Amino acid sequence: MSSLLTESDLVNEAEVVWLENPEHLDYVRQALDKTRRRNTKPPYARDGRMVGYALLDDEASPDPDSGLYRRRVFFLLPHDRDSLPDGLYREGAPGEAVDPRTIAPKKPGAKTPRSQSGSVAVASAQ
Asked: What single-letter DSSP state applies at residue 41?
């Protein structure tokens, strides 16, 4: 799933838990993962690191076929801007990247000049 999440994908979010301070990140990647539980830290099986995740409210129902909950997870890969500032995403950002300052429960994150161009580019444009 990409950053093209809608509020209808997130209706049962109760809280966003950050494992890292999002103020220091230009962007985070977001995806909907299927997990067994709705209110614990989900497992993480990607490269890179999980930087946050959503907890679901008591009204959340698991998928009737799989028994799994769909939850938002925020992560960064080893080649993202925070780890390689002069790398592939020195300018621009991956499609699923959003500004972590725009993330709230039940609200999809948004792309901003900072997430798309980087804090250095935004600072120099002011």
From this structure: P
pTM, full prediction = 0.89
- Please, which residues bridge with residue 69 across strands? 35
Rounded Cα distance, 106 and 126, in Å: 32
Q: Are the C-beta atoms of residues 82 and 89 closer than 8 Å to each other?
A: no
What pLDDT digit, counting tens, does each position of 65-85 carry? 999 999 999 999 999 999 999
Contacts 24+ apart (CB under 8 A), 58-64: 59/12, 60/12, 62/38, 63/34
The HSE-up count of residue 112 (CA atoms within 13 Å, CB side) is 18
Structure confidence at residue 118 (pLDDT): 75
Token reading at 34: 């299927």
Query: Any idea what DSSP says for residue 47?
Result: S
Q: Name 70's Cβ contacts closer than 8 Å, sequence gap at least 6.
A: 9, 32, 33, 34, 63
42: pLDDT strictly greater than 50: yes
